[in-house]
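TL;DR need structure tokens for one chain.
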Amino acid sequence: MRKKSNPVWMVLVYVVLIFLAILSIMPFLIMMVNATRSTTEIQQHAISLIPSSYTMKNFAILTGKSFNPMRGFLNSLIISTGATICAVYFSTLTAYALVIYDWKLRQPFFTFIMAIMMIPTQVTMIGFYQFVYKIHMTNNFLMLILPAIASPSIVFFMRQYMQPTLSPEIVQSARIDGAREFYIFNHIVLPIMKPAIATQSIFVFVTNWNRLFEPLILLTDQKRYTLPIMVSLLRGDIYKTEYGAVYLGLTLTVLPLIVVYLLLSKYIIAGVALGSVKG
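>> reply
TL;DR here they are.
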């Protein structure tokens, strides 16, 4: 017989979950509230849940600097979207080749990909900058988008997800029916991989949206600054740090990430549910 759940334990579980949810939301709430407050109010009381009336003044300070936050928002969106598409599509394509095709150097190739994961980006940045400088591609968004094609961690994730999910018989049946390889990948494999693609898209988009190190080195033209660069320059003002404007810039930086998560979260939930049914 099915045991009845203990009401006391259920209440305790819900209390813990609500507490953890509040802890997760609280930093975002404080940040958004501080975006409406003045620098003096923030310095006097760093934590407050009561909005103030300095939002427009903070926005005026934000837009009154030597750069345009709206342009930075658009620059960040272009880089993050382009890098996400390149990383997810080509990593899934690489994982497809590692899972479906049987070739001699498949395992050594996968081992090589895993070894690349151990190399930090900072180690290769000097050589990459010299290469970009010699081909006269500094201040070009392509140099921040195209390297995302080589994403070893996403290849590993896609391969692990694809092995139990994608049946080779499906691919063989499509080949027998006369479908070409790219048609099979684009119309059969990608729909099956939707939950994994959605999960990795969130991570890649967030990573590239918040990326500061590489854009700060490669982009020297203020018109091509990303939003994180602009926010970091606000914090480094030699005269006075306008914390209200900084928090407003951070809020503008976070909002697209929340929107992307809300758009893709249903695919993640669907993937988790599908995995539990298969299990």
